[in-house]
Design goal:
By secondary structure, the chain is an alpha/beta fold. 41% of the residues lie in helices and 17% in strands. Helix 2 crosses helix 3.
Length: 499
């Protein structure tokens, strides 16, 4: 448009001829006349695009595109794959011609009318939306990918996020417990995607076959689960947008924390801070004000769901259960038996015959072991020598006094047997009395298993009273006096009798 304005001013205002303008601008006179006659800048475009090399193969390429259109998106061929196939058919042209043709064909297949949506409005306490996101944080100086569970109340837009090492079912349960505890109530319905942790089968329309344990979570909180249509993210657009905005607000720049617990505590505080932002629909009110209004409509949060995933596994001869590429110890009496492993988000429970055998912090690496040394004490009764090099006893945190006694006894012959005797006494009577007995033995300067056990038994034996109460009817009228001379008299009498 700038060139058009200059040419029109030079000819119509200054009166310059078309030939002079053409010589000065290095344009043809026909082009100058066209500019002077046009109100808008003239555009040059081909009315017909020739395909000298691709022409004989256009029908073949169109047929391939029609076939690919009926396939799933992941199975459709790219322009490069179509170009390779055409080369095998005898095509000798360039890739750009194929790419432009494919782009033009796909554009022609798009609907001419833009898809329209209906704005949604939700009642207070009616629904919430849930989704996962993938983030990268620095925990303990190491870059780690984490899965972040996103919750969003549809009415007040109140958010809650929590980070987990994985996107497994027990993490889903724990995230719901945390979200409802943070909100102080439970909505009526939840809108979800169709992940395997929640949905076992997608049926016709909105019908779903939900996972049994996920239904137990919904039944516990009396929530109606609503599954979105596959590949229709707009059905839970609020939480979809939240994933992008919170990634910018919370996870940029990269977060640095000592552990996952510190990260989740910080995320929970930041969600509270975001309540001061204006509400997207009601700009004159904040998210916190609408959340206070919605919280009154939520059903009370009474008890958290016991969110575990259970597996039945067999304990090995080394009293270990291998779960998720890590090992957890059980009491020696259950070696070789079937154990129910209840996996929580942060801990592992080992159950047999409806009895809790052990509980360990959960490991998320590979090849790690969680030992409880007391589980192996029955084995030590038969094999006390295993106390020296046994893996469960390498990092055993014992009381300080008992640790000193333990180290002294292990340097003596038969010290492992003596230490096992002390451990058996500690299992029977408790570590606190054993700690006191060890401290008394150290003060006395004689450290041996009999001395420690003697001190322990003296501590645990009942103390005799200083004086015994005597009833009045049993009290003597004439109490004997202490007279040592009577003993001397008895001795002199015995001498006379002997003579």
């Amino acid at each position: 448009m700038e060139t058009l304005g200059k040419l029109r001013r030079r000819h119509l205002v200054k009166g310059e001829s078309i030939s002079a303008i053409a010589r000065d601008t290095h344009l043809s006179r026909q082009t100058v006349r066209k500019y002077l006659a046009a109100r808008d800048e003239p555009r040059y475009s081909r009315k017909h695009q020739p395909f000298p090399q691709l022409g004989p193969f256009r029908d073949t390429l169109t047929a391939w595109l029609e076939v690919d259109r009926q396939r799933p998106v992941r199975e459709r061929r790219t322009a490069m794959r179509l170009f390779d196939a055409l080369r095998q058919e005898g095509y000798r042209g360039g890739y750009d011609s194929v790419r432009r043709f494919v782009k033009r064909w796909k554009k022609s297949q798009r609907p001419a009318v833009t898809q329209a949506f209906v704005p949604l409005a939700f009642a207070p306490g009616a629904k919430y939306q849930f989704d996962w996101s993938h983030e990268v944080v620095e925990l303990g100086g190491v870059l780690q990918p984490v899965k972040v569970a996103h919750f969003r109340l549809c009415y007040s837009r109140r958010s809650f996020v929590a980070a987990y090492p994985r996107e497994t079912q027990e993490m889903v349960f724990d995230a719901h417990n945390r979200a409802f505890a943070a909100w102080g109530g439970v909505p009526l319905a939840g809108i979800y995607d169709n992940p395997k942790t929640m949905v076992d089968a997608i049926l016709v329309g909105k019908a779903r076959q939900f996972n049994r344990r996920f239904l137990a979570l919904m039944n516990h909180y009396l929530i109606e689960p609503i599954a979105c249509t596959p590949a229709a993210g707009w059905e839970k657009g609020q939480v979809e947008n939240q994933v992008g905005t919170l990634r910018e607000w919370l996870f940029t720049p990269r977060l640095q924390f000592a552990c996952l617990e510190d990260l989740n505590a910080w995320l929970a505080q930041r969600c509270q801070d975001l309540e001061q932002r204006p509400h997207p629909d009601q700009q004159d009110r904040t998210i916190g004000q609408l959340f206070a209004e919605e919280r009154a409509q939520l059903r009370p949060f009474t008890a958290a769901f016991d969110g575990y995933v259970e597996h039945t596994l067999r304990a090995s001869s080394t009293c270990l259960v291998n779960y998720d590429r890590n090992r957890y110890s059980v009491p020696a009496a259950y070696a070789g038996t079937l154990i129910s492993v209840r996996a929580y988000a942060e801990r592992i429970q080992l159950v047999a015959d409806e009895q809790l055998l052990a509980e360990h912090p959960r490991c998320f690496g590979r090849g790690q072991s969680r030992f409880n040394p007391w589980h192996y004490l029955p084995v030590l009764e038969r094999k006390p020598g295993a106390l020296r090099d046994g893996a469960p006893f390498q990092q055993w945190a014992l009381p300080d006094a008992f640790r000193q006694v333990y180290e002294r006894l292990m340097k003596q012959p038969g010290g492992d047997t003596a230490c096992v005797d002390l451990l058996l006494a500690g299992r029977q009577h408790g570590l606190e009395p054993l700690e006191v007995a060890c401290a008394l033995a150290l003060e006395q300067g004689t450290v041996s298993a009999p001395v420690v056990l003697n001190q322990l038994h003296r501590l645990l034996s009942p103390r005799l009273p200083d004086t015994l109460p005597i009833p009045e009817r049993l009290r003597l009228t004439l109490e004997p006096a202490a007279n040592c001379a009577r003993y001397d008299q008895l001795r002199s009498t015995e001498v006379r009798h002997a003579r």
